[in-house]
Amino acid sequence: MYKEKFLESLKSKRIAMGITQKEIAKNIGIERCTYTLWENGKREPDIESIGKLTKILKIDYNQLFGNEKR
Predict the structure, then answer these.
(1) Measured at the alpha carbon of residue 40, what is the angle toward residues 17 and 61, in degrees to the nearest 5?
(2) Are 35 and 43 in contact (CB under 8 A)?
């Protein structure tokens, strides 16, 4: 459940902000292909990279993992 929410949030927020995979990867300090693997659910980011993602995408951990209060 969390993995699916994470993948959905990661991609949808990136697209909504008009940011490319290449731009996010550069800001995190990884290769674009690594980021693509995250977005496709083939690999998972480490905790440091998750922290960077929340800053770049301007969301908190709960939003990223689909734990938002409704």
Answers:
(1) 55
(2) no
* pLDDT for the residue 65: 84
Both structure tokens of 29: 């300090």
Q: Tally the C-alpha atoms within 13 A of residue 48's C-alpha that lie toward its C-beta.
A: 4
pLDDT, tens digit (0-9, with 9 covering 90-100), for 14-47: 999 999 999 999 999 999 999 999 999 999 999 9
The answer to whether the CB of 45 falls within 8 A of the CB of 38 is yes
Give the angle subtended at the CA of 3 by the CAs of 62 and 52, to the nearest 5°. Answer: 55
